[in-house]
């Protein structure tokens, strides 16, 4: 642009330093009149002059202003532009600068303000003209002015603009909330490429940033809170999600009944209801986490539990409610907290607890919008806590049901010592064990495990355990017992499948495993059948151990009709048998398991001590679900307590059996009445064997906790209890046995069957009876 178009020169204070002829012609003032005057006043007078407006319209002239570097002071050239494009550009720039919602400033190379639009003055709460000449960092009172000044100098040096840079304002005592600005800096150059200053753009984005932070906090709470179904864990997740993103300190206090899974109270909460400090994160805690106490009356916390209305409170030394809780007041003073939001944890009018959010020292105080956020956060947390509470209650009920269904005090066996290791899972389960006394001084050792958790697993376990008790009374072999138990499990599975589709149990298939081992202390053998559970381990008295080769059958209620093969092994006296659920198999039962040496070396340890050693050595976190192991140490029944005699297969068998029984019971010191009853029972058993059985016949008497009379034969036919008529001369044998004996039954084996009867007896006061009592007590 020609120099003849230059109208005037203006210094940095806005006063005319040179007034040229084109300006005299355009405005009508001479140089003597204009030099030294404020250009703003001159332009105001010119705008009011009708003569100047007509000249401007007729010539189509416009005014351009550009900085010109002349030494350290900045000088501005005012030029006349007649180019239509320039006029249009000027109109666009004028409209943008005057009406732009963002603050626009022109800075010189010393970062001093030489021009600012009206939005800047509104943003800085200053009047027009008061910002001219101020340093950029003084205008906005930035939190770190040195860093921002260095950044702006880099823009001047490199020419690379900075866009949308977020900068916090320094905390001011006269304003509660610090502003956040979005700055953009662009370097200004003249047509020759000389740097003449910067264009700075600023926008107050405080509310936008606060809204984004609130949304981020709410998203974090919804994502992270409620991951675990435990009341205390949910509270810990809550404080971790809001500190420091929303508050500097967070305290969660929960009604103690809620922690235990019980129903929460309705609002207003009684002042005597105790609350537990469930979670804390921040600087100074008034009470330790886990502390249970009543909330003091006359505090915002107790008021929130009364009316369920959240409160925004400015905390100061003159706050009246601090006197009601000195410990909390001291913690607030030491942490420097100045702003507090107290919000309830409530759901459907039921009060779960209360949450306190604090901000301290240089943190901005809470605003009313933060109360809405705190309410949303606590609503989500209350839902998660209530879910955890309900789950805790269900888990407690399931654990209680399971505990009641397990043997409360296993019956002491004379021929086997037992001890069990039971580590319940966090959600309950369906593992169980039993040690049942069988006829002939035998013992059935049972371990089972129902897949799943909670009430469904516990109740199914109770059903299967009841079935086993009923079937065990029939003296079935382990393989047959498992087959019938699997039939029952299949019927239970079919019932589940028939439930409505909306029932959660419909989608949970029934799966269970079981192992049954029957130990015979007379033959020193153990017959084992298993369905799904790991193979048991036997630790022999000499210290050697072996995994017993028991063929595995399918899981209970499994598909198909695969059998449950039984395996009979010899177990010397003093052998320790270990039976476990799958959870411990890899660690204890496996030959290379890390805890297998403990089992191998524990052959001589008392079984409770061996269980403790295994528990002490279990690695935390290596197991999932429930853990159960049954340890049994075998004993032999002394030969003095067993009588075994072969019998002829003819009518002479009954007198021979009665005579043998009479002499043996006399040796054992059995009283005469019991001996007479036993002779009658033996006579009927032998008579039935001779009449309906097949040779060879055998008599066996066992004196253990009861007297057991057994008669074996090679026939597989089942004896049948008849009710003979008055005129019948036979058919009363088993009826007499059932009347006289405590229990009776039939046990089938590969070579035929054994019919047995149990009878409670009293030992006489004779010498032999005393000796037998001593032997009997020693065996116990």
Question: Distance between the terminal alpha carbons, to the nearest Å?
Answer: 121 Å
Shape: rod-shaped
**Secondary structure tally: strands:** 31
DSSP summary: helix tally: 23
Give the amount of beta strand, in percent.
25-35%
Could you describe the 3D structure shown?
This protein is α+β, with helices and mostly antiparallel strands and 780 residues long. The chain is built from 23 helices and 31 strands. The strands form six sheets. A six-stranded antiparallel beta sheet has the order 12-11-10-15-14-13, sandwiched between helices. Strands 17, 18, 19, 20, 23 and 24 form a six-stranded mixed beta sheet that branches. It has a five-stranded antiparallel beta sheet with strand order 6-5-9-8-7, sandwiched between helices. The chain is rod-shaped. Mean pLDDT is 83; it is low at 724-731 and 765-780.
Keyword list:
23 helices; six-stranded mixed beta sheet; 26% strand; disordered C terminus; alpha+beta; 780 residues
């Amino acid at each position: 642009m020609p120099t003849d178009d230059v109208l005037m020169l203006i210094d940095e204070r806005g006063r005319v330093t040179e007034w040229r002829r084109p300006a005299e012609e355009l405005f009508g003032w001479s140089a003597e009149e204009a030099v030294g005057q404020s250009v703003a006043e001159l332009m105001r007078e010119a705008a009011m002059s009708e003569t100047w407006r007509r000249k401007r319209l007729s010539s189509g002239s416009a005014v351009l202003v550009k900085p010109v570097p002349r030494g350290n002071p900045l000088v501005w050239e005012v030029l006349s532009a007649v180019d239509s494009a320039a006029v249009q550009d000027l109109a666009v720039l004028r409209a943008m600068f005057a009406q732009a919602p963002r603050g626009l400033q022109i800075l010189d190379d010393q970062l001093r303000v030489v021009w600012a639009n009206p939005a800047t003055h509104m943003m800085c709460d200053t009047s027009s003209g008061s910002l001219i000449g101020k340093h950029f960092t003084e205008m906005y009172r930035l939190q770190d002015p040195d860093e921002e000044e260095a950044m702006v100098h880099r823009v001047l040096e490199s020419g690379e603009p900075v866009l949308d840079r977020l900068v916090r304002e320094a905390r001011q005592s006269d304003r509660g909330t610090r502003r956040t600005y979005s700055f953009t800096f662009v370097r200004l150059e003249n047509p020759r490429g000389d740097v003449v200053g910067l264009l700075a753009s600023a926008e107050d984005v405080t509310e936008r940033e606060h809204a984004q932070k609130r949304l981020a906090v709410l998203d974090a709470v919804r994502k992270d809170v409620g991951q675990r179904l435990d009341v205390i864990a949910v509270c810990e997740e809550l404080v971790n999600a809001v500190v420091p993103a929303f508050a500097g300190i967070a305290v969660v206090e929960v009604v103690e009944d809620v922690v235990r899974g019980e129903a929460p109270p309705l609002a207003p909460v009684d002042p005597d209801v105790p609350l537990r400090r469930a979670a804390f994160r921040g600087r100074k805690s008034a009470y330790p986490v886990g502390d249970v106490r009543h909330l003091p009356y006359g505090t915002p916390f107790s008021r929130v539990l009364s009316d369920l209305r959240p409160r925004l409170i400015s905390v100061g030394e003159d706050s009246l409610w601090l006197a009601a809780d000195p410990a909390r007041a001291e913690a607030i003073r030491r942490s420097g907290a100045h702003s507090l939001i107290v919000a309830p944890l409530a759901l459907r009018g039921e009060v779960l607890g209360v949450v306190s959010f604090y901000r301290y020292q240089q943190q901005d105080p809470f605003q009313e919008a933060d109360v809405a956020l705190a309410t949303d956060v606590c609503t989500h947390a209350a839902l998660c806590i209530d879910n955890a509470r309900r789950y805790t209650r269900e888990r407690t009920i399931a654990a209680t049901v399971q505990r009641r269904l397990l043997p409360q005090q296993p019956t002491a066996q004379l021929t086997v010592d037992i001890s069990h290791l039971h580590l319940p899972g966090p959600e309950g389960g369906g593992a169980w064990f039993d040690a049942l006394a069988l006829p002939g001084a035998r013992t059935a050792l049972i371990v089972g495990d129902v897949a799943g958790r909670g009430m469904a697993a516990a109740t199914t376990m109770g059903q299967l355990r009841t079935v086993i008790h009923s079937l065990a009374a029939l003296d079935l072999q382990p393989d047959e017992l498992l087959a019938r138990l699997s039939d029952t499990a299949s019927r239970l599975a079919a019932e589940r499948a028939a439930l409505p589709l909306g029932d959660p149990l419909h989608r949970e298939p029934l799966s269970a495993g079981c192992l049954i081992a029957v130990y015979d202390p007379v033959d020193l053998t153990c017959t084992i059948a298993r369905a799904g559970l790991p193979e048991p381990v036997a630790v022999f008295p000499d210290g050697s151990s072996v995994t017993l080769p028991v063929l595995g059958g399918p899981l209970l209620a499994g598909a198909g009709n695969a059998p449950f093969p039984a395996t009979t092994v010899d177990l010397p006296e003093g052998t320790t048998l270990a039976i476990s659920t799958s959870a411990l198999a890899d660690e204890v039962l496996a030959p290379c398991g890390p805890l297998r040496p403990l089992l191998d070396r524990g052959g001589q340890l008392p079984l409770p001590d061996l269980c403790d050693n295994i528990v002490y050595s279990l690695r935390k976190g290596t197991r999932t679900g429930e853990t159960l192991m049954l340890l049994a140490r075998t004993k032999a029944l002394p030969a003095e307590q067993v009588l075994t005699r072969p019998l002829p297969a003819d009518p002479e068998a009954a007198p021979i059996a009665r005579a043998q029984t009479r002499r043996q019971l006399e040796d054992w010191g059995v009283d005469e009445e019991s001996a007479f009853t036993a002779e009658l029972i033996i006579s009927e058993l032998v008579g039935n064997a001779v009449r309906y059985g097949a040779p060879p016949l055998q008599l066996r008497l066992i004196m253990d906790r009861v007297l057991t009379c057994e008669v074996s034969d090679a026939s597989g036919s089942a004896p049948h209890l008849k009710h003979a008529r008055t005129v019948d001369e036979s058919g009363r044998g088993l009826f007499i046995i059932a009347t006289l004996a405590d229990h009776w039954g039939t046990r089938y084996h590969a070579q035929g069957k054994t019919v047995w009867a149990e009878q409670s007896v009293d030992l006489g006061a004779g010498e032999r009876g005393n000796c037998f009592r001593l032997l009997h007590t020693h065996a116990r």
